[in-house]
Design brief:
With about 325 residues, this protein is α+β, with helices and mostly antiparallel strands. It folds into two domains: about 5-70 and about 165-320, Zn peptidases (Aminopeptidase), CATH 3.40.630; about 75-150, Peptidase M42, domain 2 (Elongation Factor Tu (Ef-tu), domain 3, Beta Barrel), CATH 2.40.30. About 20% of the residues lie in helices and about 30% in strands. The protein contains six helices and 18 strands. It has helices spanning about 5-15, 25-35, 170-185, 205-215, 265-275, 290-295, and strands spanning about 40-45, 50-55, 60-70, 75-80, 85-90, 100-105, 110, 135, 150, 155, 160-165, 190-195, 220-225, 245-255, 255-260, 280-285, 300-310, 315-320. Strands 1, 2, 3, 10, 11, 12, 13, 14, 15, 16, 17 and 18 form a twelve-stranded mixed beta sheet that branches. It has a six-stranded antiparallel beta barrel with strand order 4-5-8-7-6-9. A hairpin with a 2-residue loop joins strand 14 (about 245-255) and strand 15 (about 255-260). Helix 1 (about 5-15) packs across helix 3. The two termini are about 25 Å apart.
Length: about 325
């Protein structure tokens, strides 16, 4: 068997695969094929969750490690008569970052339209919603309404060790699952389930369905989180790149959309990190949510280990490979 690719090579491969929420077939197939080389069993269910089991099926204790497969993106809302497409968002897309971005409309290239600076008008502002945007695809291109739209693959490896790419949320988590599969040796009478979940960016239905089937005694979610080490974020929190993964205590968006880490499970991870000499950070984040909320609905103790990134709400995410 060939040696596994280094982590940044793996990130480049994973982030290039399309998979907006509800359309995870391609990334699910890649994860299935990679995990199949190591796991006792691998299944892909009707929602496109990938579930790989390490250890006996009748193990006394079950633990799930979850990273979501899907990404935010766009979808074709209308085909216009001027070689442009109107769009609708899928998941929490940041519209300020979209103008002039290169995209893929299905497997066709496109670019999100932006008014030329030479034609700028008084009062021009950053687009606030999907109605202000369009995609240019060229004359004669046949595109079906509801075709998924993703950012074009692009990666940058910086001299500082930073790695930049669209969709590191949560393809970095998927890379962690594949790296974990290479070294995983479950304790006696334990089964570890590595789960690539579907639809995290929109419904969290994938993780709910997968965990309801596994019924683990504990669940660990690997996902992206924010850092506060850029000029526009300094002073908002202590998390920075290069200082270790983040043990999150609380996530909240609005209304009843919140999550709390299981206190004893989170304390256990802190003890393990200290004993192993692994630096870690801590945070509670407003405006961020995770598949972990469905573990609470199912009565499963859960923790979220966050990979800090800059530009968390933008198409471009930056990941420090030392984390």
């Amino acid at each position: 068997m060939p040696p596994p690719p280094d982590f940044t090579t793996l990130l480049a491969e994973l982030t290039a695969v399309p998979g907006i929420s509800g359309h995870e077939d391609a990334i699910a197939a890649l994860m299935r094929d990679r995990l199949r080389q190591r796991a006792e069993s691998v299944t892909v269910d009707s929602l496109c969750n990938v579930v790989a089991r390490f250890g006996p099926a009748d193990a006394e204790r079950r633990v799930a490690v979850v990273a979501h497969l899907d990404t935010v993106g766009l979808m074709v809302k209308q085909v216009n008569g001027d070689s442009t497409l109107s769009i609708t968002p899928v998941g929490g897309v940041n519209f300020k970052a979209l103008p002039a971005a290169a995209v893929r409309v299905g497997d066709r290239p496109g670019v999100i339209g932006v008014r030329s600076q030479h034609l700028a008008q008084p009062g021009d502002t950053t687009p606030a919603n999907a109605e202000d945007l369009y995609i240019e695809v060229g004359a004669g291109v046949d595109v079906e309404i509801t075709t998924p739209i993703t950012y074009a693959p692009a990666t940058i490896r910086m001299a500082s060790g930073l790695y930049a790419s669209p969709y590191l949320d949560d393809r970095a988590g998927c890379a962690v699952l594949l790296a974990l599969a290479e070294a995983l040796q479950p304790p006696e009478n334990h089964a570890i389930y590595l789960v690539g979940s579907a639809q995290e960016e929109t419904t969290c239905a994938g993780a709910y369905h997968a965990l309801a089937g596994i019924r683990p005694h504990a669940a660990l979610f690997v996902d992206g989180t924010v850092s506060y080490d850029t000029p526009d974020t300094r002073g908002r929190g202590p998390v920075a790149l290069g200082q270790g993964p983040v043990l999150l205590s609380h996530l909240y968006v609005s209304g009843l959309n919140g999550w709390h880490a299981h206190p004893r499970l989170r304390e256990h991870l802190k003890l393990v990190a200290r004993a192993s000499g692994i630096p870690y950070q801590q945070d509670a984040v407003r405006g961020l949510m995770s598949d972990a909320r469905v573990a609470t609905w199912l009565g499963i103790p859960s923790v979220v280990v966050g990979g800090p990134s800059r530009g968390k709400t933008r198409p471009w995410k930056r990941y420090n490979r030392t984390n």
